[in-house]
Amino acid sequence: MASSFSINSITPRTTSKLRNYSFPAFKTTINFRGKKSSSNLICERSCRLGIVRASSTEVVDDHHGVADVDEGTKKVLRVGLICGGPSAERGISLNSARSVLDHIQGDDLHVSCYYIDNNLNAFAISTAQVYSNTPADFDFKLESLAQGFRSLTDFTEHLASSVDIVFPVIHGRFGEDGGIQELLERSNIPFVGTGSTQCEKAFDKYDASLELDRQGFVTVPNFLIQGSEMDESGLSKWFDQNLLDTKLGKVVVKPTRAGSSIGVSVAYGVTDSLIKANRIISEGIDDKVLIEIFLEGGSEFTAIVLDVGSGFDCQPVVLLPTEVELQSHGTVDVREKDAIFNYRRKYLPTRQVAYHTPPRFSMDVISKIREGASLLFQRLGLRDFARIDGWFLPPSSKASSSAGNKFGRTDSGSVIFTDINLISGMEQTSFLFQQASKVGFSHSNILRTIIQHACLRFPALLSHNIISSPSTRSKSSSVTEAFIKQRKKVYVIFGGDTSERQVSLMSGTNVWLNLRASDDLEVTPCLLAPATSYSDVSNFANHEVDKKSKTVWTLPYSLLLRHTTEEVLDACLEAIEPNRAALTSHLRNQVMDDLTRGLRKHSWFNGFDISDELPKKFSLDQWVKLAKESQVTVFIAVHGGIGEDGTLQSLLEDEAVPYTGPGVMASKTCMDKVATSLALQHLTDSGVLTINKDVKKKEDLLKMSISDFWHDLRSKLHCDTVCVKPARDGCSTGVARLCCEGDLTFYVNALQDCLPRIPPNSLSKAHGMIEMPNPPPDLLIFEPFVETDEIVVASKSRNENAHNLLWKGDSRWVEVTVGVVGKRGSMRSLTPSVTVKESGDILSLEEKFQGGTGINLTPPPSSIMSSAALGRCKKHIELIANTLQLEGFSRIDAFVHADTGEVLIIEVNTVPGMTPSTVLIHQALSEQPPLYPQQFFRKLLDLASERSM
Predict the structure, then answer these.
(1) Rounded CA gap, 527 and 552, in Å?
(2) At 494, phi and psi to the nearest 5?
(3) Quick one: 427 exposed, middle or buried, by C-beta within 10 A (0-12, 13-18, 19+)?
(4) Cβ distance 426 to 169 under 8 Å?
(5) In whole angstroms, what is the distance from residue 337 CA to residue 327 CA?
(6) Exposed, middle or buried: residue 264 (CB in 10 Å: 0-12, 13-18, 19+)?
(7) Is 389:141 a contact under the CB 8 Å cutoff?
(8) Which helix (H) or strand (E) holds 712?
(9) Which of 760, 738, 941 is nearest to 846 (CA)?
């Protein structure tokens, strides 16, 4: 299969996509130290990374050990997972790769991981690196951690001899525009997804719009701006033709080749449109910009299409589409009055967007969406799977009334398709998994089905029959029943009322997905339902009634895959509403029938593995008693509130139900940041320091003279700059740096007005978006802002190393976050992570929890902290954990002196974030041997069970 293909030898006719990229001619491999020969060292590094040499008869995996490639009639399918790329969505690509890796690994399928950096350099990376929060986490370490290929030619030659099929999960440029596909095609390397020519045509929004028009579909009127030519006259005429006001007419400005959400904005009038188009071009996002009319009154939707045909015989089935509803809660920023489904709304767990699967459209509209998406998939020559986005417009809209007799017209309005996504996002709660679970596919089942379908196109791979759903492997019914009865029952609880309830949902979902991979566990996700409304915050105390009367829902698989707790709750209520439930069931059966007609032809398909169940509602008291009766162990993932203040722990202890994390008293102490400081203040001589604090009630603060309070605060704390944070909330909301009286005034007004968030750069010092607690906290802490030296991860392409870590180290203090694990009295520190802020001085919600942003250096680089100082730091962290009587696991945030290892405590989180990109995962992977997410969460669960014995 190896090829002598060279980039330089491609004729102009065959480089329509490749000409757009600057391929590196030479990429230095790894700088090795020591006296071993470079060839031996490369072999050693290759083995550790799970890279297979052409002559090898086995795959060495740093995750699962050794897997035989050919074991009699059983053959292991070797999959090359490629992520990264040059687009702004490379962080999301890493999230997708991590999710795919979690769900396709098995005895019959081996995964090797690869990464393309921003400059199109290719690397073989370890599976551990895939769990990094962002590419920036390891970009600067690639030369020492990964095998670099000297060119993309070398890379494809390696793939040709080392993997059976490639699964590209590069979003945007080079991943969806045909770039990576053409490289693979030229070397005859099998891959999942659509071919290069078809990708190129479908990815470009302008070209796709022209093709849709030729195919007879309704399209959105648009105007193309290319290069530096700002055709103001032509654009003005276009505005007039579409009855838009040239001064204030509302349009959408988007790059044509930057994915589905990067650089998209709303503009008003010709001048504003040209300004925003020029910004896209000048920032290097794209040199082609599309201006479209704003689809007023429309509803956005997205639909996953799955090909279930044989070989090149296309048989697309459209799953249950999802309606995308943009929402606003509380005071709406004027800049959000004409909101669009942008990058932030798509990838952050905020209440700015809600999804409805199936959509709340009439049956004829849903049928038209499914029919149209299927036709598009076929006519555009797409393969395996894709996501197609569009709009449903009521009859009264301008675009709908001008649709004529084109495809998309219904009695209820018009269906317009706008975006084709060749490699749909594959994060844990992405549209792919939301829609697939609605029709019976688990994460593993849908991904393996897609991979196996791609194999049908390649004769050499027909002998590979991976199991589409490993969880349904054949066992005799009697063995299966006996096995199910013996399985240990686990409840994973998340949600609640705090400002971190959305992060709690992410944590709970991640824990549930990882634990359910264990055959001996029966894991049920449970939502601690949020309060129905905080519209009248003054009455919030009414919600603080008997905690036992709070509501808990046990959830079926498909209802959990949402972005917010409110969405999950709404989905539960919808599921038990008779009319909605009947519609969903009808559509589900319809889609499953369509799928079955195609999939039953394939011997490798093992059936659907997600049943159509209803959620169940309990009071918290009933739920705890049920946990006791069923001998359940509870995994607590409720951040803040009753999940961290000892309340939930106390309820479970009263019924002798084992649970994860610290006990009642430790939870109470750590939830109160003032109490935490008091409990540790006697450790000063042992190298553990605390920060002076001033605590104020919100109601008192609102009555004070801001000027007088600011003066008194600076005098009392002996500082010029102050940090404000809720006293008894989580670690990521409402935290701000106040540099002057004006900052304090703005913050107090935000509390008084119940702002859901403080927009970026509203205070005197630059900062990112500050999510505010909802409802506002009763108690606030003011403390000196601890100044640390900025750490910069710089990318350089001239003269020096490719990536550099810059740190002046003047103050010698750095901020770290550290996980601690173990039993009470013998807690052990994991490897600390140095936190690097990307914007401002306070880590934002995104930087803490959302994959694709934020940088964590694990372990701290030796250029910042010596191994001796790091050792002392870990000892101090363990002293803190054992003094506070922590157990199970927790996370400690602190400032550390880079030379002495002294620790200045910030706070302790007894239910830390457990999202797919949390630093706890990075730190567990730094253990020897590494603890992968499934192993790590299982260890935490086992600690809970051992404590109850």
Answers:
(1) 5
(2) -150, 175
(3) buried
(4) yes
(5) 10
(6) buried
(7) no
(8) helix 706-717
(9) 760
Q: Summarize pLDDT for 363-413 with one digit per residue, the tens.
A: 999 999 999 999 999 999 999 999 999 999 988 766 655 556 788 888 888
Rounded to whole angstroms, the Cα distance separating 586 from 503 reads 33
Tens of pLDDT, residues 5-33: 333 333 333 344 554 554 443 333 333 22
| Torsion angles phi and psi, residue 821, rounded to 5 | -135, 145
User: Are the CB atoms for 500 and 637 separated by under 8 Å?
Assistant: no
- Please, where are the H alpha helices in 389-526? 398-401, 431-438, 443-455, 477-486, 501-515
Q: Among candidates 793, 789, 813, 788, which has minimal Cα distance to 805?
A: 793
Segment 712-719 long-range contacts (CB within 8 Å, at least 24 positions apart): 713/782, 716/692, 717/692, 717/782, 717/783, 717/784, 718/692, 718/784, 719/784, 719/785
User: Which residue type does 925 have?
Assistant: L
Those residues whose C-beta lies under 8 Å from the C-beta of residue 91, and which sit 6 or more positions away, are 134, 135, 851, 852, 853
- The pLDDT score that the predictor gives to residue 514 is 95
Token pair of 190, please?
């099998």
pLDDT for 316-365, tens place per residue? Answer: 999 999 999 876 544 444 344 445 444 444 444 455 678 899 999 999 99
775: cis peptide before it, omega within 30°? yes
Which tokens sit at 261? 């959400």
Judge if the upstream peptide bond of residue 859 is cis by omega within 30 degrees of 0. yes
Rounded to whole angstroms, the Cα distance separating 120 from 108 reads 31
SS3 246: coil
Contact 523, 755 (CB under 8 A): no
Show the tokens assigned to 1.
């299969």
Query: Is 310 exposed, middle or buried (CB count within 10 Å of its CB: 0-12, 13-18, 19+)?
Result: middle
Task: Write down the pLDDT at residue 639.
Answer: 93
Predicted TM-score of the model (pTM): 0.85
Structure tokens of 217?
Answer: 């579909």
3-class DSSP string for 625-690: HHHHHCCCEEEECCCCHHHCCCHHHHHHHHCCCCECCCCHHHHHHHHCHHHHHHHHHHHHHHCEEC
